[in-house]
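Re-run with default settings, no changes from the original entry. Doing this only to confirm the output is reproducible before filing.
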Amino acid sequence: MKWPNICNPNNEYHPSPYSYMTAQQIISHLKSLENVANQEGMKRYAIGNDNTLGIGLPVLRNLAKTYKKVANRHSIAKELWDSTIHEAMILSGMVADPKLLTKEEMDAMTHQFYSWDLCDQTCNNLFQKTDFFIEKAFEYSHSDKEFVKRTGFVLMVQYAVHHKKSNDDLCIRFLKRMEEESSDARNFVRKAVNWCLRQIGKRNAYLHPIALEAAYRILEQDTPSAKWIARDAIRELENEKIIKRLK
């Protein structure tokens, strides 16, 4: 097998017209790019779980591009995920085939989330491209596990942002779930609820006032978490630039 020309001073990946790396070769390549300085920065932002290599997302995205049409990319993605290396797990979500992902696989991956960026990247790159992610969004939003619950609301964010031609009424159902869960004080849950509330409010002019009303109802819950979620969302949704853009 001919190896792609992947090593350069800028830590970038350049695809080769000759061959593709196996999962184990990808893992070896990722390990060769380990950046200790970046690892320290990741820790400060709660990225990873002492299993990072310090590799930036652009490198992973460029690498993933070469696997979009590879026949066995889903099996490669599984091996990358099972490596438990943080960057390999994120790359797994970029490489996996959403058409082949099963509900059981999504459940297993979701219950292994330990970091907000792994959760968010996997939702964005893989989960929201499946036919059943809405069902899972509601299911996960009821979980008592912090990152599983976050996944539910992050999937709602993905709907609001990436499925703008789809039914707006579903977003109103999302808002109801947010109101019901706004008292959850766990950091990665409340931040996901806040993110979702803001994205729905910015989706279009129809949803903007509905989201604002929901934010004010959340504010009335009078818990520290609900107050933070609501005030931050209201501040953004009442911004003149946002209102002008929606009009």
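The longest helix spans residues 146-162. The domain at 133-247 is CATH 1.25.40 (Serine Threonine Protein Phosphatase 5, Tetratricopeptide repeat).
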